[in-house]
Design goal:
By secondary structure, the protein is mostly beta strands. 7% of the residues lie in helices and 37% in strands. The strands form three sheets. Strands 1, 2, 3, 4, 5, 7, 12, 13, 14, 18, 19, 21, 22 and 23 form a 14-stranded antiparallel beta sheet that branches.
């Protein structure tokens, strides 16, 4: 099902000004299990492997240098929902969870925006309206974790970056970038192969980059686990996963007046959605992109996971990227191509593929 229009119109979730009372509680942490991830008996042994920080024991997190950002407060929202607040390396972050019985199909626009849910495209586009109804009829919401966890070894290494493959819009003035892509099947052809797949604002001609997506084979993340990042702070893991060979939706939105980013995630197979808003002054709207990236861990480039072909839809500011745009072609130090994108399709100007070519 093509859901590409459903995230159009998403705005940053409301902050503390939308609350009516404040209370502090302790939550039980809940996160999905990773594919094949096992917590080793020796905490240090797992640090170079893929693991979910939300299910790993405290000893493993400490041994691997994972920074945890505990829940600092909860705020009751006017409709009975709850806003969960964290301090992430000095930046305020919050996750809004709707109340029991919340029905996105009957919520008004403000209610949808508060919880990061796309608005109904309306009866004028029957296909998109039907797809939206199907999505919200089965949408699931996460449990807010007791703490957020970073991924200390994994971050965008070089910005502007030469380890990207994808399409990059360069028109500027971007306040949102949305992508839907197929989460690849994991392939072991490239020993120790890793890759990350993400949408973002900035980073192509600017050192400022905000991004969110999924990753495979990365130490400190479950394989196919989601994450978000605002450079230069290390990436933060998210307790939601992509489902291999199914589509995953991500959107980075900048609220310029509020000084916040909202990172939206939606798994079209499991129907699980997730949205987090983060305060940050580090913004560049100079580029908007969807990228498959060769991962650098602790300063060393790793083999590129053989992801095959990734089908991508990319829009920026809720329309096609248009001209000017660049192709990011991933090459090794010998200028051999590891992965490259096709052109945007002629008819919509929104679809392209990213094709894997070699491990390293």
């Amino acid at each position: 099902m093509d859901m590409r229009r459903l995230t159009h119109g998403l705005v940053a979730a409301s902050g503390p000004g939308r609350v009516v009372a404040t209370s502090v509680i302790v939550l039980a942490m809940s996160a999905p299990a990773a594919f094949g991830d096992t917590v080793a008996a020796s905490p240090a042994a797992i640090c170079a492997t893929s693991f979910d920080p939300y299910t790993a024991p405290d000893a493993t997190l400490a041994a691997c240098g994972v920074a945890s950002y505990p829940l600092v407060a909860t705020q009751r929202l006017a409709d009975g929902g709850t806003s969960y607040h964290y301090n992430v390396a000095g930046d305020e972050a919050w996750i809004n969870i709707p109340p029991a019985g919340f029905d996105p199909a009957t919520a008004d626009a403000a209610g949808l925006q508060l919880y990061g849910i796309p608005t109904d495209p309306g009866q004028t586009d029957a296909a998109a309206h039907s797809a939206w109804q199907s999505m919200v009829s089965s949408m699931k919401f996460p449990t807010a974790p007791a703490a957020l966890h970073n991924v200390p070894s994994f971050r965008a290494a070089d910005v502007p970056s030469g380890n990207w493959a994808g399409q990059v819009g360069k028109k500027g003035g971007y306040t949102s970038a949305y992508a839907e892509y197929t989460e690849p099947a994991f392939n072991t052809t490239c020993a120790g192969g890793m890759a990350s797949y993400w949408v973002g604002l900035g980073g192509w001609t600017s050192a400022n980059l905000a991004q969110n997506g999924t990753a495979q084979g990365v130490p400190g993340l479950g394989s196919d686990q989601a994450w978000w990042e605002i450079l230069p702070t290390a990436a933060v893991a998210v307790p939601i996963y992509g489902s291999r060979t199914y589509n995953f939706q991500v959107k980075t939105t900048r609220n310029v007046s509020a000084g916040t980013f909202t990172f939206f995630f939606y798994n079209t197979f499991s129907d699980l959605s997730y949205s987090i808003t983060v305060s940050s002054g580090l913004y560049s709207g100079s580029s908007a992109e969807m990228i498959a990236e060769r991962v650098k861990i602790n300063g060393v480039y790793k083999p590129l996971q053989k992801f095959g072909t990734i089908h991508v839809t990319l829009t920026a500011n809720n329309v096609k990227v248009g001209d000017p745009n660049d192709k990011a072609i991933l090459k090794n130090s010998a200028s051999q191509v590891l992965a490259s994108p096709t052109d945007f399709d002629f008819f919509s100007g929104e679809h392209y593929d990213i094709n894997w070519q070699r491990c390293s």
